[in-house]
């Protein structure tokens, strides 16, 4: 098999993984749970085959982040004391499968290949979501229910159908909120935010043609507007602040960043203060209530349960199992059981206790630390002078910010697509730490070629 065909197969695998993980709700609506599990199993097998065939030389088990082992090991052990053992086994298997796919992508693909395949997957998810909403608005002209709901949750007999059961509410021409293929304005808004980050980086780095790049930037921003989610706007603001700090850090250099860290700390403290003491005002500006659509009530109930088993939790399950206790009677929204704590940190405490948080937090902190320095440290080759920064070094840090902000109001960080991205960034930043430079940046724009001076003084042009 030629090298080009081999890389094409690897790229296709990564695109399929990103689409399945980030667009899992849409896939389940299209093919059902049985089809979704079958596709997931096929991707796991495909990933193992690719990994064995590629045999990445840099792979060593000890190169995986230690907190990842701690967290997964505790999740496996929690089956022993779980209050819902069968569901815990299923949750652990799903967690391990997602982790395996992330590890394969991290070791088999380069940073640029990850950026490119993630961008392709996001274009499919955003584009098809808008096409789906357009079809519903033009041809169906009424709300559409999620296909996988039957047999999974009970539709309440109140005469009013909860919004959570809709696949599309047919609100495209009304200005939203639209839900897209993923059947959730929150999830679609976050996917659009990821798209805005990835497409913006690709556009600025010259990795795509300007017309194509600007088109998808505009489409992503328009999708965020149509989802009308408060959390995604907060996450977007955090990403913008993170980008400003990263560019400032690049300008200052490694030796003069104390004012930057002081400013970043002040911004963080201010943000926390606003959330704690002025939540009604802040979210009122975004057209949302201060209780975050009932999340505060859910958080309190989860805290009450977590305090009953504070150290090791109730057992790992990832997605809540609404048919099992204590989930069946824990909380309801609009007549149906909630499927998560709507906060990744509370969910980890609830399921794995304080010990779980002590394993989870280092994974987050160390990953954020590594992608920050990947974004702001000057690239070098040997002992020579620093090279020109590459734009593509920024995207892991910006994606990490988006993941962290969403983890405060959603539990997606510990399941499916967001867990995949977290593990991917954690693993790849742990072993693949060579910083990209501008002259090594692939480009599709001939007029952005970079002149390089060789040791003999001759000038050559690098694409």
Automatic annotation (TrEMBL):
It is a multi-pass membrane protein. One of its GO terms (cellular component) is membrane. Keywords: Membrane, Transmembrane, Transmembrane helix. InterPro entries: O-antigen_ligase-rel_domated (IPR007016), WaaL-like (IPR051533). Residues 217-361 form the O-antigen ligase-related domain. It is found in: Membrane. The chain crosses the membrane at residues 33-52, 64-84, 90-109, 121-140, 178-199, 211-226, 232-248, 260-278, 348-366, 387-405. It comes from the Bacteria. This is Exopolysaccharide production protein. It comes from Leucobacter chromiiresistens. The lineage of its organism: Bacteria, Bacillati, Actinomycetota, Actinomycetes, Micrococcales.
């Amino acid at each position: 098999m030629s090298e080009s065909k081999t890389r094409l197969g690897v790229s296709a695998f990564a695109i399929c993984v990103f689409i399945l993980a980030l667009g899992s709700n849409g896939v389940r609506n299209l093919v059902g749970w049985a089809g979704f599990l079958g596709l997931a199993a096929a991707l796991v097998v495909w990933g193992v085959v690719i990994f064995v065939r590629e045999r990445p030389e840099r792979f060593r088990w000890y190169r995986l982040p230690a907190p990842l082992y701690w967290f997964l090991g505790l999740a496996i052990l929690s089956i022993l004391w779980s209050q819902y053992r069968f569901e815990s086994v299923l949750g652990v298997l799903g967690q391990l499968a997602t982790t395996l796919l992330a590890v394969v992508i991290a070791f088999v693909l380069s940073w640029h290949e990850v950026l490119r395949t993630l961008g392709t997957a996001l274009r499919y998810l955003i584009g098809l979501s808008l096409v789906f909403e357009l079809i519903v608005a033009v041809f169906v002209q009424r709300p559409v229910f999620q296909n996988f709901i039957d047999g999974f949750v009970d539709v309440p007999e109140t005469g009013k159908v909860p919004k959570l059961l809709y696949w599309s509410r047919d609100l495209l021409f009304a200005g939203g909120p639209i839900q897209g293929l993923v059947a959730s304005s929150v999830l679609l808004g976050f996917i659009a935010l990821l798209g805005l980050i990835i497409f913006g980086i690709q556009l600025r780095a010259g990795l795509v043609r300007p017309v194509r790049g600007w088109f998808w930037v505009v489409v992503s921003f328009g999708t965020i507007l149509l989802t009308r989610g408060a959390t995604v706007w907060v996450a977007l603001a955090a990403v913008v602040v993170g980008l400003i700090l990263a560019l400032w850090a690049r300008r200052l250099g490694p030796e003069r960043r104390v004012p930057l860290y002081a400013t970043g700390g002040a911004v963080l403290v201010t943000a926390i203060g606003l959330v704690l003491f002025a939540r009604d005002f802040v979210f009122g500006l975004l057209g949302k209530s201060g209780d975050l659509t009932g999340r505060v009530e859910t958080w309190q109930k989860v805290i009450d349960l977590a305090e009953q088993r504070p150290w090791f939790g109730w057992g790992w399950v990832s997605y809540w199992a609404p048919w099992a206790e204590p989930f069946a009677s824990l909380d309801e929204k609009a007549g149906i059981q909630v499927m998560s704590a709507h906060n990744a940190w509370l969910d980890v405490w609830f399921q794995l206790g304080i010990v779980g948080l002590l394993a989870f937090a280092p994974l987050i902190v160390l990953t954020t630390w590594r992608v920050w320095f990947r974004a702001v440290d000057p690239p070098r080759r040997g002992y020579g002078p620093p090279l020109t920064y590459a734009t593509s070094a920024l995207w892991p840090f910006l994606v990490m910010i988006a993941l962290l902000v969403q983890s405060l109001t959603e539990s997606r960080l510990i399941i499916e697509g967001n867990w995949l991205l977290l593990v991917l960034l954690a693993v790849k930043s742990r072993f693949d730490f060579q910083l990209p430079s501008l002259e090594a940046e692939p480009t599709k724009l001939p007029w952005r070629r970079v002149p390089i001076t060789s040791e003999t003084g001759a000038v050559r042009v690098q694409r």
